[in-house]
Every structure is written in structure tokens, then in C-alpha cells.
Amino acid sequence: MIPAISPFRPTHPIPYGRQHITPEDVQAVTEALQSDFLTQGPKVAEFEQKFAEYIGVKYAMAVSNGTAALHLAALALEVQPGQRVITTPITFAASANCVRYCGGEVYFADIDPVTGLIDLQAVRQLLESQPKGYFHGLIPVDFAGLAVDLEAARQLCDEFGLWLVEDAAHSPGGFFTDSQGAEQWCGNGRFADLSIFSFHPVKHIATGEGGMITTNRPDLYEKLLLLRTHGITKDSAKLHRNDGGWYYEMQELGYNYRLPDMLTALGISQLRRADAGLARRRALAARYDAAFAGMPGVRPLAGAPGHAYHLYVIQVADRKGLYEALRERQIFAQVHYIPVHTMPYYQDLGWKNGDFPHAEAYYARCLSIPMFPSLTDEEQAYVIACIQEFVNQQ
Ligand SMILES: *Cc1c(COP(=O)(O)O)cnc(C)c1O
User: Fold this and answer.
1) Which end of the chain has less neighbouring CB within 10 Å, N or C?
2) Beta strand pairing status for 105-108 and 84-87?
3) DSSP class of residue 187?
């Protein structure tokens, strides 16, 4: 029985996140389908250029999904079997898996319980516990849309000789404020060697499957272009020989990680609404913040002016109880994330429960509640009322 807490009743399930597709989006894809190009047409370069402008970075390369972006990042940075790379346990598995694809070893550093982000102090301790050269790279994640302090991460990486890849899947449009007071947008290439984005439907910009890699480094960009398409080039300046007009060379072992033209057409159309979507996410977050400030049993993760709010995460003592109570009321909250080091695959590699106490304590309490631009004020009020009701019963 749903008690009379709010006059509003949802007519359909409310998920934690969802894509927003407009008639303009449909039109853009239809036009692309009717063009001469289904895969590598002019829309790909247009999307890359517009995305690069939006983020404020020199180079952007579209790929088939965010996981492919991470894989190519690891390949471009030449992760070798046995090399050690550090990431956070509170992320989607792909942030760690990309290292494994190349035969590297994944290490984790615990999170800061206030922000949910990798704790750079814990990273420093890990780095200092071994001789220099022991670790090769760091992959921090702008978890939930909160930007990692990449300036601090870069200093740490430089001190210990690591490369830096930012997993910005949650944070297009997000930023942190650097030591000079400047806003540094996620993926802008100022501090990270490479940044990656995902265009999975729950992310800010949806293309179905899709991803992007951004960088300011021309050397890495060149390498990525080659790796995206089988390691093949037709660029006459780069060929070892030239047998004629048909001639191409495969110079590296690459992949087919291309994003098709019709999906980039959707991406371009979605990108036009990125600012509006971000503004709506921030407005929803402000309303949640205000509501939960008055609910002692509910603790949201820390906010920040540059937060991009891919997720809105609260922490409660009885997480499973709340998850189930919300489901009964048509609200489909989700858990982000089950710590990666507790996955059977990573436990087989030697990681154990108890290795990262902050991540595990966070996991025991966290719940991502609805956060997406088309969530209406009424729906959000209903979500808040249902949480309030649950907390009151505790
Ligand atoms: C979604 C996501 C990815 C992977 O993106 P896909 O496009 O689904 O492959 C990587 N890292 C994080 C943090 C993500 O949320």
C-alpha cells in the first residue's frame, strides 16, 4: 500500500537515469541514414570537432564505446604485461579492465568517503610504499560527475613518473577549480594525458553505444587514429612504400573501434542540448540537497559548483530496505558501484574483501536516486516524499 504522502502517482516507472531523445534527434539520425555514409562519413569529424570545442580540448576522437576508449588509451600509453596501474574501486569495471586487456596489473587506492573519489593521499601512500618506477599509470574517475583535482593528480604522477588517464564518463561539462582559480573542464587535456567519455544512454550525451577520447598531445592523437582503424593508414607521408592509389599499410596491431556516422549525427544533435541538460541536472541536485539537509538519516555525497551530476548518490543505513521500498513505489534506484576489487574476477587476482574499507563502507550504504534532465518537478517531489516516508519509519 502506498500511503498518501503525495497526491502525485507515477504512471510509469522512474529509473535512476535515462536518455532524452527529441524529434530533432530523430530527424538528425534519419538524415544521416539517407546520406551516402553509414559508417565513416562527414558527421564523425563534425561531432569530434564540436565535442572538442565544447570541452575545450585540442583533439577529440570518437570511438565505438567508452570501454573501447579506455582500451585504446591503455594501448596508446603502451601498457605492457606486468606493468602496474592504479585506479579506484568505486567505478564501472571498465576503468580497471582496460589495463587487463593489455596484460597489466590493476592496483586500487581507497576512496575519500566524503566525495566518493579516489583519495589522492591514499594514492601517494601506495606510491611511496614502493620504489620509483614500480607503478606506471593512474586512472582516476570523475565519479558521479564530480571532477577529480587533476592538477594535484598530475603533480603526483609527475613526481612518481606515471601517466594520467581521466575517466570522465560521468562528467562532460563538469569542472574543478585549479590553484590559480581557473575552471578546468573535465577532459580538457590540461593535466591528463588522455580523457575518455561514454555515450551510453544513461550518460549525459547518448548515442546508444559510443565514446570519445580527448587529449592535447598530438603524438597520442596520431597513435589513437591508427589504433582505431586496424593500425591502417593511407597517409602518403607515413607510408613505407607506395604501390599505387589503392595502397594502404597496416603499421600496428589495431582494432575496429569506429563510431558510425548515423550515431555521431545523434551525438551532434544531443550536444546542442548538453548545457541545458547540465543546468537541469544541477537544478535537480540543488532541490535534492535542500530536501536531504533536513533528513538526518540521509547523507548525499559531497556536491561542488562544477559537479556534472551524472548520478545523485545518497547514503542510508538500510540501503536494501530503501531500494526495495522505492521499487514498490515505481522508483528504480540503482547502486553505483559494487567495488571492483570484490568482483570474483579481481578476487581471483588476489584482492580481498576488507582491502579498501572506505569503498566497502560506502558500498554498504549508497543508492543512486533518479537524476536525468527529463525528470519532472512532480516526479522529483514524489521521489523525495517516498524517501522521507521511508526514513520516518526507521
Ligand atoms: C559507462 C562507463 C564506462 C564505459 O562506457 P561504455 O560506453 O558503457 O563502454 C567507463 N567508465 C565509467 C566510469 C562509466 O560509467
Assistant:
1) N
2) parallel
3) T
Atom of ligand 1 nearest to the CA of 170: 15
State the distance from the centre of ligand 1 to the C-alpha of 295, rounded, in angstroms.
32
Distance CA 11, CA 131 (A): 59
Reply yes or no: is the peptide bond before residue 337 cis, omega within 30 of 0.
yes
Confidence tier at 360 by pLDDT (50, 70, 90): very high
CATH topology of domain 23-271: Aspartate Aminotransferase; domain 2 (3.40.640)
pLDDT tens-place string over residues 178-211: 999 999 999 999 999 999 999 999 999 999 999 9
Domain ranges across the chain: 23-271, 274-393
- CATH code: domain 274-393 is 3.90.1150.10
Dihedral pair phi/psi, residue 213, rounded to 5°: -120, 135
Give percent of the chain with pLDDT exceeding 70: 98
Q: What cell was used for 92?
A: 564501472
Give the residue, by CA position, lying nearest to ligand 1 atom 6: 66
Nearest alpha carbon, ligand 1 atom 3? 66
- Grid cell for residue 222: 596520431
Q: Pairing relation of β-strands 211-215 and 194-198?
A: antiparallel
Tell whether ligand 1 has an atom less than 6 A from the beta carbon of residue 92: yes
Main-chain dihedrals φ then ψ at residue 123, nearest 5 degrees: -65, -45
* Residue 366 near ligand 1, beta carbon < 6 Å: no
Query: Amino acid identity of 259?
Result: L
How far apart are the C-alpha atoms of 74 and 193, rounded to whole Å?
Answer: 11
